[in-house]
Each structure stands twice: as structure tokens, then as C-alpha cells.
Amino acid sequence: MERRQTPEILNYRNENGHGWSFYINDGVLRRVSTTPEDDMEIIRNVQKLELRDDDVIIAAYSKCGTHWLWEIVTMLRAGNSEYHKKKKEIAMLGMPKLERADELPSPRVLNSHLHFCHLPEKLVEKRIKTIFIMRNPKDVSVSYYHHVSGLKQDAGFEGTYSEYLDLFLEGKVSGGGYVDYVKDWRQVKQDNPDLPILTLFYENLKKDPVKNIKTVADFIGESVTNELCEQIAEACSFKKMKAADTEVKEAFGNSSDIWKESHKGMYRKGEVGDWKNWITVAQDERFDDVIDRKFEAKGIVFTYE
Predict the structure, then answer these.
(1) Which of 2, 54, 111, 216 is buried deepest, with most CB atoms within 10 A?
(2) Fold for the domain defined by 40-297
(3) Whole-angstrom distance, CA of residue 61 vs CA of residue 175
(4) Catalytic site residue from 84, 113, 115, 146
(5) Does the pLDDT value for residue 258 go beyond 70?
(6) What confidence tens digit (pLDDT) does each residue in 2-56 have?
(7) End-to-end CA distance of the chain
């Protein structure tokens, strides 16, 4: 039997000890939560997942609207604007102990923050419909900071936003660099022209939800009325989704094991342009140098307000 080599642990904590340890899996930076071996086993299980012809996969970098889009697609599949009683984590690929994808009835709406190389191997062969959603990186960085600063244990972050931003711009956060993630998916689309991929922008979905919900419905092959799209848009407004998260959704696991006592949960603001309350002029210039110009060079122009 071939003996697997133990991956090198990369310590990317800053001088104040804030940050995380990582290892590299297929060229992708992966945060070490327990051991690299455990994480590699999780990835292998995802890659071996048996896909069904009517599956839909939502692919997104963290804090780009995965919850929002999952609710929308789930409602479109159900043909109504009622919330699914379960949280999207039951269908999230690569989430240890919480994922229940194998047990879900068809049609499934799967979701993931994983890079393409770590998703089920049959995705292209089966031509699984995939929805890729992007959000402007400045709002992503702020939202991601608040997310990790609310987490307990090794996943959490105790430093300031400025400290977190340094790591974010260097790609030393869970999920790796945002530019690399988007670049990866654009390459997938280019290399696999027969794979049905719909690309959405968070800001467009926010500005005109009904139009974008209809676009999603057409892509996944659901015949819908304008009235249903309006009902889904209303049910999936940030305020109503935040309320449903506590009033309708069944809890998974013990939230006190995940979130700090002072943290208010997964939903914060969901706004476009909140980054202006956090990012200084100097930091904004760094964004332009490190991230924005790379996106513009690839023809990707984000909406920042």
C-alpha cells in the first residue's frame, strides 16, 4: 500500500498570533481544523459523491450570498415561497459532521465553497447545472471578518479588521484568495463549454431580485410566474431570511459550540457598500492594487455601492 506523505503545515498567523494554519491540497490552501489527513478524507468523500442528473450545485466563495441563493433555488424547485425547514448546511459539500447530501431526496440543491478540483468528480460528465455567484471583494472582506470574529476556537479570529484585511489580501484565509477562487471558476467555464454554468452577481440580485430569480428559474428549467418570483423575492429579503433563520429553521448541532456568546449568528447586514464604514482610503488603494485591477484585467467589473 502506498504511504501518503504528511502535508507541510503552514503557519500564517500574524505577529500578534492572529490567523490560522494551513496545508496545500491540489494547489489549494486549506485551513487546518483538525489534521490535514482528516481534511483530505473529507475532500475525498466529496469527490466520490454520487451525483444525480437533477442536482443543482451553487458554488460561491464565502460571504457571497450562498444562503440567499440556496433559499431562492430551493423555493423555485418547490414551486412556492415557503422556507425549507432545514438549513443549507445539510446540503453543503465539505462540511464535516453537518453535511447530509446523501440522505436528501431529489431534486437536491447542493452548495459549496470548495474549489472545482475538490467537488464531485462526475460534475462535468453528468453536466450538472451549476450556479456561480460573485460579490464585490470589499464587502466580502468586511462580511468575512465579522463571520470569523464571531466563531469560537481555531476557526475564529481575535484581531482587528485591519489585521484580517492583511491576511485576506494575501489569500491567507479559509478558502484561499478570492481572486484565485474566481479565476479557478472562470477557467472551469472556459475548459468545459458543455458544463451548464450560470454566473450571477450578488449586487445585481440585490438590485433587481425578481429579474434575477426569473433568470435562475429559466436556467434550472422551472416554469414560473412573475407573481411567484415576486413572492420568493419578498420571502428572501434579508430581513425576512434573518427572522426565518431563528423562527423557522431547525437548529443543527449546538450553536454555542460554534459561535461566541456575543455573536448574533450568520446574518449581519447583507448590504452593498458597507465596506465604506470599514475600509480607509489607504486600504482602498491597496484593494485596487492587489485585487481590483486583477479582476478588471479579466473583464470582471464589480458594483461597490
Answers:
(1) 111
(2) Rossmann fold (3.40.50)
(3) 7
(4) 113
(5) no
(6) 456 789 999 999 999 999 999 999 999 999 988 999 999 999 999 999 999 999 9
(7) 56
